[in-house]
Amino acid sequence: MAAAMTQQQILHELEPVAERLMNRHISMFKDWNPHDFIPWSQGKNFKTPNGDDWAPEQCALSDVARVAMVQNLLTEDNLPSYHREIAMNFGMDGAWGQWVRRWTAEENRHSTALRDYLVVTRSVDPFDLERLRMEQLTRGFSPGQNRQGNLFAESLFDAVVYVSFQELATRVSHRNTGKACHDSIADQLMARLSHDENLHMIFYRDITDAGLDVAPNQAMASIHRVLRNFQMPGFTVPEFRRKAVIIAVGGVYDPRIHLDEVVMPVLRKWRIFDREDFTGEAARMRDDLALLVKELETACDKFEISKQRYLEREARKAESITAAKTLRPDGTLSQSRH
Fold this sequence. Notes:
Elements: H1 7-28, H2 63-77, H3 79-90, H4 94-120, H5 126-139, H6 156-181, H7 184-214, H8 216-228, H9 240-249, H10 255-269, H11 280-325
Helix pairs in contact: 1-4, 1-7, 2-4, 2-5, 2-6, 2-9, 3-4, 4-7, 6-7, 6-8, 6-10, 7-8, 8-11, 10-11
């Protein structure tokens, strides 16, 4: 059995691939400006002289769209932590360093555009938003925070595999959030961000694909580890679970979307279940991934049942509220006449 390659050996072996993929990325990238996607004419002062304090009725977004937009912003805001992770694994020299800097510059504009949109359109309390942003950035992020140790600390493959899935998941979430806003400007903005995320995903996905040819067993170990422990980068956001439920029930990002639009397309691209170059423990991990896919299918079915029950409960609550509003002061029901 061949000895495992060191991280430096893998970096050296894949650097020509990184350079080729970065050049391809630049040729496909469509330049844009965050300020072009903000309805500045809607802006008003807040606490300065003649300003108006924020009020909930000023938000034109649905609860699902508002929660998703804020969650996306808080996720994008953690760029300093993401930069640290890929810089630690890729280094800052050669093609790898060029990609780190290019990727960071492109990602930096996402949070700027999202924050400007939310504040200018008064879609969120700016005081609460700044409090959440400060808390989120102070917490930082590492994909290994949801398990003991640091997921990225030991392997370059862990890094590129994780972002292959995460960038695609973010792309899907952004696109669906834009649609949920029912606002043409928000939809265009989120489509623009989604395009960036898709190009980033393609870079990382294809680096991993090349890595599977260079060191298949090591790459397989990372794929297995990442998918068995996968968490979106926004899991450190305060009240993440409650917000994730709202986003899932609203159809922005749910277990079925995760499986059908993120996990399976990437696994198919890598031909994980068709390759014959995994040996020993890596072959066992590949078989376990097939079991994981079945587990995710079961989770999708359970979620749909839970979602339906949740929607039925919410409908009953709405009916009760409507009925209560029709009561006369003496407690009897009033009848509407048409």
